[in-house]
Amino acid sequence: MSGPEPEAIPGEPAWERPFFVVGQWSGSNVHVWAVLEAPIDALERSDALEEILLDTDDAFGSANVVFAASAAEAEATARREAVETAVQMRQRNRRSGTGSHRRVSHSYR
After folding, report:
1. Are residues 32 and 76 in contact, defined by beta-carbon separation less than 8 angstroms?
2. Cβ-based neighbours of 47, under 8 Å, separated by 6 or more
3. What is the CA 50 to chain-centroid distance, rounded?
4. Contact 72, 34 (CB under 8 A)
5. Nearest by Cα to 78 from 22, 40, 2
6. CB–CB of 28/87 below 8 Å?
7. CB 69 within 8 A of CB 14
8. What is the pLDDT of residues 26-62, one digit of tens each?
9. Fewer CB in 10 Å around end: N or C, the chain?
10. How many Å separate Cα 9 from the centre of its chain?
11. Radius of gyration of the chain from its Cα atoms, rounded to whole angstroms
């Protein structure tokens, strides 16, 4: 799926293209198994993602589509987003009391 890298123009942002970042996410811990260039066409990309998700499901993994200039940047973006999401979830859980170890007593009469 990979082809030649597009020529970068000095001072211009690099052209972003879709990548599949495949691995296992557990909070902010990310184990990336592969970064694959994804099809540009949205329908083809959706079909390919569905196939990848079927394959990764058996290994309790998942796949995300990340737009980036390179495979390394796509992996870094996926890792950063996993950490950001984990932080947001912890903050949300603290505010709501979800996931806390507080005991709740109930009295039934």
Report:
1. no
2. none
3. 15
4. no
5. 22
6. yes
7. yes
8. 877 889 999 999 999 999 999 999 999 999 988 889 9
9. C
10. 28
11. 19
- In this prediction, residue 10 carries a pLDDT of 60
Place of tokens 């980036």: 68
- Tokens read off for 96: 């709501």
Length of the chain: 109
Q: Which residue do the tokens 């066409």 mark?
A: 41
57's tokens? 């499901």
> Where is pLDDT greater, at 101 or 44?
44
CA–CA distances in Å: residue 12 to residues 7, 39, 69: 11, 23, 12
**Across residues 15-19, what is the average pLDDT?**
94
pLDDT of residue 87: 87
**What are the tokens at 48?**
């390919």
Distance CA 70, CA 91 (A): 32
Single pTM value for the model? 0.69
pLDDT of 98 above 70: no
